[in-house]
Amino acid sequence: MKVFITGGTGFIGSAVIKELTASGHAVVGLARSEKSGQTLAALGASAFYGSLEDSDSLKRGAEAADAVIHLAFVHNFADFAAAGQTDKQAIEALGGALAGTNKPFIVTSGVPNGENGHVVTENDESGKFSRMSEAAALPFAERGTRVTIVRPSRFVYDQTLANGFIAALIEIAGQKRVSAYVGNGSNRIHAVNVLDLAKLYLLALEKGKNGAKYQGVGDSAIAFRDVAEAIGKRLDVPAASISAERAAEHFGFLGQIAGADNPASSEITQAELGWEPTHSSLFVVYMRRPPAGHVAAKLSGGNADPETPSL
């Protein structure tokens, strides 16, 4: 298939493009600059120039493809509502172009927040702190488009641990010289290796059911204290408890995540698609690797790589 992908130059998108091309699909990536186009070419994809804010370019890219994978998102946590609106408008443009074609439309969301330790499954609805992606995309499932939702774990990582929220935790611990957890640290997080997640996008493209939600969760319930202690050991800084009142000050925008008990499952996804996380777990990766390069640079007074892609 000829697959149009947004967000193809990002951390997850790059892995997805490699997975798609290795499986014989032709990939066209949305590019807003010549540099992005060069990055896509290096990944084995061709470039289609436009932007997430340009609905016309999104429509043209979708109309020329056999399928669409929407990964791009404006990671502006200072104005999450505006980022959500941009995402909603992009999904409506892409979905509108695909309506009536029965072409696959894979839209990225996120595992919803659970409450009181509830294990979040694919059957749970997006909560009030979730992205607008699902609400914007799912109506197109009734308009002749094969819509499937992929919910990546909140903590997506690779062998470098230089991207995403786990990298942010490492950086905070390095800067503040303490690896903190909230209270007794028994609250749980979930995580997934980006290579496993890329495989999930491929399976969603080839086998996904219309209207289905699939969760990219590898490690389903890791105690946050275990994460903090592993980070502390690798950075040679102490792991220590902080109060819930201090979480926002210490962790910044990650304060709420750091204190939430949010286990999640991918059992339905694995059963329906035959997806199986096979790459190293978060702890195996971290304990075998030195501190991520950009974090090590900060600890020694250097600067982070400005071109490191975000989640």
CATH architecture of the largest domain: 3-Layer(aba) Sandwich
Q: How many DSSP H or I helices?
A: 13
CATH superfamily of the largest domain: NAD(P)-binding Rossmann-like Domain
Q: How many E strands?
A: 12
Mean pLDDT: 89
**Order of SSEs:** EHEHEHEHEHEEHEEHEEHEHHHHH
Question: In the CATH hierarchy, what is the class of the largest domain?
Answer: Alpha Beta
Relative strand content: 15-25%
> The CATH topology of the largest domain, please?
Rossmann fold
Determine the structural class based on helices, strands and strand pairing. Answer: alpha/beta
The main β sheet shows up as: 7 strands, parallel
Radius of gyration, CA atoms, in whole angstroms: 19 Å
Biggest β-sheet: strands ordered side by side in the sheet = 3-2-1-4-5-6-10
In whole angstroms, the N-to-C terminal distance is: 26 Å
Domain tally: 2
Residue windows where pLDDT falls under 50 for at least 5 positions: 291-311
Categorize the overall geometry: globular
The percent range for helix content is 40-55%
How would you describe this structure to a colleague?
With 311 residues, the chain is an alpha/beta fold. The chain folds into 2 domains: 2-154 and 193-217, NAD(P)-binding Rossmann-like Domain (Rossmann fold, 3-Layer(aba) Sandwich); 156-191 and 220-264 and 280-299. It has helices at residues 11-22, 34-43, 55-63, 80-98, 133-137, 164-176, 194-207, 224-235, 247-251, 255-259, 267-273, 282-288, 293-299, and strands at residues 2-6, 26-31, 46-49, 67-70, 104-108, 146-152, 155-157, 179-182, 188-193, 212-216, 219-223, 239-242. The strands form 3 sheets. A 7-stranded parallel β-sheet has the order 3-2-1-4-5-6-10, with helices on both faces. It is globular, with a radius of gyration of 19 Å. It starts with a strand and ends in a 12-residue tail after the last helix.
